[in-house]
């Protein structure tokens, strides 16, 4: 079978092989999805699609929904209904729409009056919904969190959410195997957050592109499940499709007796299977990175990318010492945005806000670790007067747990603001936001411009460092709170070594582009491709010719493409105005800036040419693709793309075209002269007046779908027989995966009846 590894296999290979429903000869697989988590931001358009097509949710028993992004984190003492509790109209509409959808489709749902409500990536593991060996998806990039259980868990866009709801499968191509080994002892004061920030600093935010990372080595083996979740959570910040840790005794102990974990004899059979889930001794990894635990200091970010890390004992980097002009320019921009001077000691940076929360760090262990610092500071310790410090537990159950341990009392006595569960100031879709210019030490995962509020400045840190910062009012080395000899320990502890990412890699093949693929993948026989008679609602992409806008930015994240305030829509359209909003409009005056898309003729652009790699990284919001499309941009050309963004564009009849960095530069120069550029997907070439055409090759299946305007759901529904027979095998081999509703009743599979062919 294409894509199947013969011989020793990695954990990823094993999970992959156990989920392939069908695979075509060029390796595109239909993968069965065991668990689907749903939240209010990325699901309304998906449910609307189902309703319009008259399709049911295929596996309500494998689907769990909650409300987390939009909700206020204020007291729910007087909570009556979403309608009265969520006052901001767009947030309220999204939360109410989810409530209606879960009723209409018969889904398990934790609403605001339910103690089990919380951040989607917190509640899945907490309930035992997440299990080893499963495939798990959610319309959310931090689905990678669930890989901590030895599962293949990844974020998807809204069109794919609809696909999973309708078919319980996804069309996927296998990624690369990457292993990150951290061996040795972590120094005191260094925790899982420092480990993952350090890893991202080493491999960069594009380091994991196209790969699934397995975290191996003594450091991860010794970590609790909470710590493993924090690490896997931020795999997406390392550019990876997913991250995972092989399940072991720690995993089993965490899961035993969780409400949705298997019980009795079924548990024994599940555990026997889970014990087989580890990489074979001689399994081959495409990329391997080795890091010594002793080199990891308590770590903090200084810039606007999670890779901008430095030891807390370090200084703000000096762009003038950077030889690479694009790195220097981006560091200068970041320092200007962050309001920092080069060479300022990190510990001299004052703060106005501290945020302890998010799907990275809002679990019980995170709260204990923060409370430990507050306790160590003594009974009179107080949050610094210049700081507002919020603590937002990840779920109602975590909040309850923490209160039972008396952690809330420790925090409240010191002046922390103890709140209700939700995403909160991690992205500020609710009222918890930074004001322009405010600086925050945050335990979340993204420090992008405007992430926590327009003009807000974020430094990513561990929960312990956040607590220390709250007490001193500035970024602080947490080791100062560890005993009488603490100052010496800081002096003797690990310091950041400036090393190149490549020094850590045994082999680095660089991000895969479509054109890197073996040539057999580019010539699938026409018989393997679906017929293309009557197209679906997806626009065809054959030739796009027009003005191309040049953009010289690396790691363009989807928060930059479309900020959070535009995610509150229930529709897929009307987002043109939100495109690159913070770049196109002055935050004070609201006037248009001189950003490239505001200037003629680029305000008419149909193509965007970005010279920086890793376009579309970060959040899974399909709104980024919708906004580009609404603006009129049908094709983005860049040296490489983040996976979820790439899928999202293709689901909308748009072409993400990876070309070499030289070709991108060359095309951007052409674009700067204002000439029209022509992207011909049938001939697979880019033409521009007078100069030789640039040939490219893309996945034949995707080319076929784009040229004919085919939609994935219509295609997959024709595989009904294969899906049903996979489900029979699954029930026989892995019966514990047939989910049961919270009332203990098995929910029947709902199969979409195919009338006449849709295309
Ligand atoms: C809303 C959702 C699409 C988004 C994500 O995918 O990450 C959000 O959770 C975020 O953290 O930006
Ligand atoms: S990253 Fe933040 S906004 Fe996204 S799911 Fe996690 S807590 Fe919510």
Model description:
Pathway: Amino-acid biosynthesis; L-leucine biosynthesis; L-leucine from 3-methyl-2-oxobutanoate: step 2/4. Residues 509-534 are annotated as: Disordered. One of its GO terms (molecular function) is 3-isopropylmalate dehydratase activity. The structure is a single chain. Helices cover 30% and strands 15% of the residues. The chain contains 25 helices and 27 strands. It has a seven-stranded mixed β-sheet. It has a five-stranded parallel β-sheet with strand order 5-4-3-6-7, sandwiched between helices. α13 (364-376) packs across α15. It is globular. It binds 3-isopropylmalic acid and iron/sulfur cluster. 3-isopropylmalic acid is lined by residues 41-42, 69, 140-142, 155, 427, 567, 619-621.
Instruction: Return the structural class.
Output: alpha/beta
- With strands numbered from the N-terminus, the spatial order across the biggest sheet is 24-23-22-21-25-26-27
Number of helices: 25
Described by strand count, sense and barrel closure, the largest sheet is: 7 strands, mixed
Shape: globular
Q: Uncertain segments of ≥5 residues (pLDDT<50)? A: 496-527, 755-759
Provide the list of bound ligands, each named once: 3-isopropylmalic acid, iron/sulfur cluster
Tell me the CATH superfamily of the largest domain: Aconitase, domain 3
**Structural domains: how many:** 3
Q: Please tell me the CATH architecture of the largest domain by its name.
A: 2-Layer Sandwich
């Amino acid at each position: 079978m294409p894509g199947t590894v013969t011989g020793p296999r990695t954990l990823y290979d094993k999970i992959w092989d156990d989920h392939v429903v069908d695979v075509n000869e060029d390796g595109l697989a239909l993968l069965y999805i065991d668990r689907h988590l749903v939240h209010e931001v990325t699901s309304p358009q998906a449910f609307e699609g189902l309703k319009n097509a008259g399709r049911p949710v295929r596996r309500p028993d494998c689907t769990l929904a909650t409300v987390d992004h939009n909700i206020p984190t204020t007291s729910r003492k007087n909570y009556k209904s979403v309608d009265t509790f969520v006052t901001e109209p767009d947030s309220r509409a999204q939360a109410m729409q989810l409530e209606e959808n879960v009723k209409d489709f018969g889904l398990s749902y934790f609403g605001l009056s339910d103690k089990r409500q919380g951040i989607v990536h917190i509640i899945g593991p907490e309930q035992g919904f997440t299990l080893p060996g499963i495939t798990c998806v959610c319309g959310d990039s931090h689905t990678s969190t669930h890989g901590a259980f030895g599962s293949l868990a990844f974020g998807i866009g809204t069109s794919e959410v609809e696909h999973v709801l309708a078919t319980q499968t996804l069309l996927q191509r296998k990624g690369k195997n990457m292993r990150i080994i951290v061996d040795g002892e972590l120094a005191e004061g260094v925790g899982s957050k420092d480990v993952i920030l350090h890893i991202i600093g080493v491999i960069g935010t594009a380091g994991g592109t196209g790969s699934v990372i397995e975290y191996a080595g003594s450091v991860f083996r010794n970590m609790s499940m909470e710590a493993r979740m924090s690490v896997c959570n931020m795999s997406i910040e390392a550019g990876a499709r997913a991250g995972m840790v092989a399940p072991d005794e720690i995993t089993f102990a965490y899961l035993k007796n969780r409400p949705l974990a298997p019980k009795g004899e079924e548990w024994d059979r599940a555990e026997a299977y889970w014990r087989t889930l580890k990489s074979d001794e001689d399994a081959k990894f495409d990329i391997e990175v080795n890091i010594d635990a002793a080199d990891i200091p308590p770590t903090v970010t200084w810039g606007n990318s999670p890779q901008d890390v430095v030891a807390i004992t370090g200084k703000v980097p000096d762009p003038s010492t950077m030889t690479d002009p694009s790195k220097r320019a981006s560091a200068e921009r970041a320092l200007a945005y962050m309001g920092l001077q080069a060479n300022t000691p990190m510990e001299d940076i004052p703060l106005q806000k501290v945020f302890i929360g998010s799907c990275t760090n809002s679990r019980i262990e995170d709260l204990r670790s923060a409370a430990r610092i507050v306790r160590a500071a003594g009974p009179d310790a107080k949050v610094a007067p210049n700081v507002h410090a919020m603590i937002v537990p990840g779920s109602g159950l975590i909040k309850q747990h923490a209160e039972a341990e008396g952690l809330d009392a420790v925090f409240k006595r010191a002046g922390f603001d103890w709140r209700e569960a939700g995403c909160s100031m991690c992205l500020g879709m609710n009222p918890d936001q930074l004001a322009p210019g405010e600086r925050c030490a945050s335990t979340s995962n993204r420090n992008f411009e405007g992430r926590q509020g327009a003009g807000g400045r974020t430094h990513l840190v561990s929960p312990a460092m956040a607590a220390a910062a709250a007490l001193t009012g500035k970024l602080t080395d947490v080791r100062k709170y560890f005993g009488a000899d603490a100052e010496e320990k800081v002096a003797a502890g690990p310091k950041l070594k400036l090393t190149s990412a490549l020094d850590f890699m045994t082999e680095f093949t660089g991000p895969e582009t479509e054109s890197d693929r073996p040539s057999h993948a580019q010539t699938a026989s026409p018989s393997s491709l679906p017929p293309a008679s009557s197209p679906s609602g997806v626009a065809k992409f054959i030739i796009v010719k027009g003005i191309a806008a040049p953009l010289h930015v690396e790691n363009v994240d989807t928060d930059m493409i479309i900020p959070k305030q535009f995610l509150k829509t229930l529709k897929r359209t009307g987002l043109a105005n939100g495109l690159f909003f913070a770049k196109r409009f002055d935050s004070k005056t609201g006037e248009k800036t001189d950003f490239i898309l505001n200037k003629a003729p680029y305000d008419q652009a149909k193509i965007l040419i970005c010279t920086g790699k890793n376009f579309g990284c970060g959040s899974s919001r399909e709104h980024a693709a919708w906004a580009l499309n609404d603006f009129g941009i049908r094709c983005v050309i860049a040296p490489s793309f983040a996976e979820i963004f790439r899928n999202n564009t293709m689901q909308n009849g748009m072409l993400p075209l990876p070309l070499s960095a030289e070709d991108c530069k060359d095309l951007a120069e052409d674009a700067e002269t204002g000439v029209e550029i022509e992207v011909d997907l049938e001939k697979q070439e880019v033409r521009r007046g007078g100069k030789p055409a640039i040939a490219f090759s893309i996945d034949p299946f995707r080319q076929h779908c784009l040229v004919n305007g085919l939609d994935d759901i219509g295609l997959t529904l024709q595989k009904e027989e294969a899906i049903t027979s996979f489900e029979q095998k699954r029930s026989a081999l892995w019966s514990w995966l047939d989910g049961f509703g919270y009332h203990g009743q098995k929910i029947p599979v709902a199969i979409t009846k195919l009338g006449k062919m849709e295309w």
